[in-house]
Amino acid sequence: MNNLTGLSRRSFLKSAFAGLAASAVLPSFSRSLEKQRPNILWISTEDITPHLGCWGEEFAITPNIDQFAAEGIRYTRAFTVHGVCAPSRSGIITGMYPSSLGSCNMRCTASKPDSIKCFTEYLRKEGYYCTNRAKEDYNFETPKNAWDVSGENDSVKKGPVSHWRDCPEGKPFFAVFNFMETHESRLWNSADFENTHPEKLNKSQWQDPANMQVPPIYPDTEAVRKDFARLFERITEFDYFVKERLDELKQAGLYEDTIVFIWSDHGNGLPRAKRWLYDSGTLAHIIVRVPEKFKTYDCPKPGSIDDRLINFIDLGPTVLNLAGIKTPEHMQGRAFLGENLPPQRNYIFAARQRIDERHDMIRSVRDRRFRYIRNFMPFQPYFNPVPYAEKCNTMKELRRLHKDGKLNAVQAQWMADRRPFEELYDLENDPWETKNLADDPQYSIRKKRLQTALYNWMVDTRDTGLLPEPEMALETQRCGSEYEIFHSPEGKERVIRLLNIANVSSNPSDSDRPLINNALESKDASERYWAVLALGEMDKPGKNGIKNLENALNDESASVRIAAAQSLYFHGRKKTAADSLIKELYAKNLQDETVHYAINVLDSYFGDDAKPAIERVKELQDSNPGRYSKRMIEIFLEKFAV
């Protein structure tokens, strides 16, 4: 709406009000002045970086999305908070950072406090009819009040249909339709490319692998090209899906009454994209169309590009703001559409924690040009095998060519056995983030500024990832939820202590020995955990360092004992370390998170020195282990052909 239109409407209303008042029909007019609440529709999809025609992709066939973008606003700097679905979606539905909420580990079951609600609960309280078709995957149990209807395929499930068309008369709706066919698993058939084109597509929409432009982080081979070609075909399927959803609105006469969002949960499903914190994994698309009647005076014009920094935790607060509902104070997201908008972001933060079977901890901060990454576990290889991701044909190709020594220097970076403890990239000159500038003195001031912003964010949001997962589980039982562990009066000070030693642990020096020794004496098991990891990373821990690690094998905390065994193994005390981990697996009242952690360490670092653990690991198969403990057991036994 331009200012002239807005003024003329106000003048009209003023005149109309005067006439109505004179006719003594003010109550009726007051009802007509009541602001219409918008319907809001989300059309979401899985695992696509913005590979769309409206984003400049030459071979993308997305005419319906492109037309929608011409009518709406493209947000070109929108980032997910996690590069993988369940943590990402837990942030979207709550408007909070998963690392703050305690839902940052892949497919965990966090204990969300009752005070923190899904944003749809606030919508429903204000009269919105809310449906979800169909993915939840929030890393916590979906509250019963989150949706009026949420379900999978309507032909399979009994009960109400999960669709806005069943909205009671007089109510506005908020509806989600999620498209699954772009998910990474839908690319696995690309090896048989010619026989597996999506049924929805006609031949003119089939992609030619020879046309694909392969990014420099991947080898330019037929297998990789087929993966990209199949991805583009699946995106065309999504384009059909978008058309169907928009046509439903138009046929019902609701297109001009409905604000529509189109978005994807994170980057595409190829290696070093999904699951990672680079732009390839976190940059995603958001396109929004706001009908004329709901536009504010500063709403961007149709076809506009908005390049402000947006985090996906902003989606929920934006919907609330458009619906005229105040954003709850606990939400960390910021509305980016509607009236009374908060200040724009200066930074985008992101996190990676346990990914399926593999423990990890990475944090990232990005401004408009640079990205800084902190690897808190630099002893991890980049591509520590995750069985689900290994099914990708591009991943198989990377493994094959790496084994044959045929990857170039850029591609081989991601096959390294270790990571640098920090990374810095200039996105303007290095969009694929291949040249690490962290050690370049020219960028020291920039790095320090981003580093400080990242550490302040971790403290301010009470980053629960600083707790090893077994300790987090135990403390959750005591506190009631992961979130509440650090939200006690002394929580901030505890986070600062943990962050101080965690920072040291990834790049320790001799000058850090006093801090490490103090942490070893702490009453806080998580401080001791980071201290023993620090000793494992020291080039020369010395006799006292080794002695401290040996003493830590008898710590009261299983997390500390396992970390100490890992660190001793790194320093050549292989039999002692292996014996300690086997002993750990025989402990009474064995915690599932401990089983997972111990076997993960054995599998990731111990090689053939882990063989003595085989018999005990086989026994644990029958102990009803949790989902990822079970899979970690299977990975370990398969490694030794058991």
Automatic annotation (TrEMBL):
A GO MF term: hydrolase activity
State whether keyword Iron applies. Answer: no
Where do transmembrane segments lie in this chain? none
Listed SUPFAM superfamilies: Alkaline phosphatase-like (SSF53649), ARM repeat (SSF48371)
Annotated InterPro entries: Alkaline_phosphatase_core_sf (IPR017850), ARM-like (IPR011989), ARM-type_fold (IPR016024), GAG_Ulvan_Degrading_Sulfatases (IPR052701), Sulfatase_CS (IPR024607), Sulfatase_N (IPR000917), TAT_signal (IPR006311)
Domain Sulfatase N-terminal: from-to ranges: 38-325
Which keywords, in A-to-Z order, does the entry hold?
Hydrolase
Which Gene3D superfamilies would you find in this protein's record? Alkaline Phosphatase, subunit A (3.40.720.10), Leucine-rich Repeat Variant (1.25.10.10)
- Name the protein family: Belongs to the sulfatase family.
PANTHER family for the chain: SULFATASE, SULFATASE ATSG-RELATED
Q: What is this protein called?
A: Arylsulfatase
Originating species: Limihaloglobus sulfuriphilus
